[in-house]
Amino acid sequence: MSMASTTRGPMKFWVAGDWNAFFGFGTNILVNLLVLTGLLRFVLKMPDSLVFGRILPALGVMLCLSTCYYAWLAYKLAQETGRTDVCALPSGVSVPHMFVVTFVVMLPILLATKDPVQAWEAGLTWVFVQSFVLMIGGFVGPVIRKITPRAALLGSLAGISITFISMSPAAQVFSTPVIGVVCFAVILANWFGGVRYFGGVPGGLVAIAAGTVIAWGSNLLGLGYGELTLAKLGGSFANFGFEIPIPAIGHVFSGFKFLGVILVTAIPFGIYDLIEALDNVESAAAAGDSFPTTRVLTADGVISLIGCLLGNPFINAVYIGHPGWKAMGGRIGYSAGTGILVLVLTTFGIISLMMALIPVVAILPILLYIGMLIGSQAFQETPHRHAPAIILALLPQIAAWGKTLVDGALGAAGTSAGAVGVDKLAQVGVLYKGLETLGGGATLAGIILGAVTVYIIDREFVKAAAFAAAGAVFTFFGFIHGEAIGIASSPAVAFAYAGVAMILFACAKYAEFEPLAAGHGSDGDREMRMAAPAE
Length: 535
Prior knowledge:
The protein is mainly α and 535 residues long.
């Protein structure tokens, strides 16, 4: 059943529910800005003059353009349909890419050159290449969306929501439970339970305020909250000022000398962005708001390109979470309002103060809430018989997340999987090679596996065979189940997919089947039937 309302009438720019979505989405963006700033300052060792004087102001312009554009797109949809419940797509810095460009592109350049400016230039060139991948992909995206089952798209998205969105916030919430769990309870009571706080104050704002009071109160009691000190708070004012983005076109093209390093990740992750955007557009459609896919994808590319040319080394993306903000009552104003707020925060250096004032663990429960909502949507907005396909679509993301944890743990110990030996890891139950293969190109891999399973369940074996054949091609060229794009990156897996395609095609031509149960083909079926092989 669709989450959409049939309410009609004139569309207002701002409604009461926009306050909840504004504080929820705004704090989501704030978390990403705080993490991003920390990566620039403490991992890449970039000077504050570059971080607060060049990168953040450029990023603020990009995010303001993005959120205002998607607010306008929602307004146009509301005008066309006459509905008042249209919710703008959320957008912001692509979180997975934030870490990829930091650790895979900029950090190696920094270590090789000892120059943070050259590392920044490499990041700009990386975004430049990805922007064009997105713009080109915008014209093929609608076709991909049309032929790919919803369960496959939402299932792969649910894998991201459970792992990369939910797990880290959940771990941090329970690592500091006095703050994190209390804030989480405040959010759940408001956004799931419908509890109204005094004066109608949004739950997200109440949670942040409560967490900040608890954190600073613990300092006054001598319990100490390590991230927050008066010295850091006072020092944050040194970064205040008014900075206007300056074109960085020369720096963008200076980074082309690192093109060999950049292309290894820019093209595959540009495709990842394309697929992720398709997932998120499909998620919005499941919630009742169908946006034009080509406009969304090309806008991501154009807006990322503008940000890059102004000095921002992070790519823009449509965010997962549209159903969550819509369920809170968000419509159009929350998106544009967030963009304007971010522009102010980044232009005047206020992010520095925010980093020193608010405990991050007070904000993280909002991400956990969004992860819960998106993970559940995969099952709620697809036929129940497709549940096995959703589970299979989850697995590549779980494998990718598990490999990330293993790599991080071994890296902290000063070693790697190659140094330890994958056979030794396997002896203690860490199947590193399997995680690496299954998790390669996880988003696209999940969609392929999910689509094959959906079409098998629906007995459309020719379509299932076509997706398996596509999986063979993608695997052969390294887009999925491999470490990098190349020829015959994972030949055994590619051969396996080809074998699956042949078996499924043979089933379509020669197999006999039991009769389908009544209602099997309808989206409203309540019963999942596991058919036995025909005798």
